[in-house]
Specification:
By secondary structure, the protein is mostly helical. The chain is built from two helices and no strands.
Length: about 100
């Protein structure tokens, strides 16, 4: 027999952790946006920094999209499990009512 146990509060905590990671990622991206390559030194270093900034910006935007997708899935799963639990409780209450 297969058993499935879902801790809704754990899903909620995961959703909050994903929110925090999005905030941290956004803050890191903003911090690096203020660093200009032409402030760092040689032309080679400036070019390397420009390339990194482009890749970093693109990568963090893509990562943020994926985190948002996962976060929404976790949030929706938690809500649906909570709804299912309530429906099961209601069914048990209804089944027990005629016997009272």
């Amino acid at each position: 027999m297969t058993s499935l146990e879902v801790e809704i509060d754990q899903l909620t905590r995961l959703t909050n952790a994903l929110d925090t990671s999005l905030t941290t990622l956004r803050e890191a991206r903003r911090a690096l946006d203020h660093v200009r390559a032409d402030e760092l030194g040689t032309a080679d270093l400036d070019a390397a920094c420009d390339g990194f900034q482009e890749r970093w910006g693109h990568g963090t935007k893509e990562l943020a999209k994926r985190i948002k997708t996962v976060r929404e899935g976790v949030r929706r799963s938690a809500a649906e499990y909570a709804e299912l639990e309530e429906a099961i409780r209601a069914a048990f209450r209804q089944a027990a009512a005629p016997h009272e």
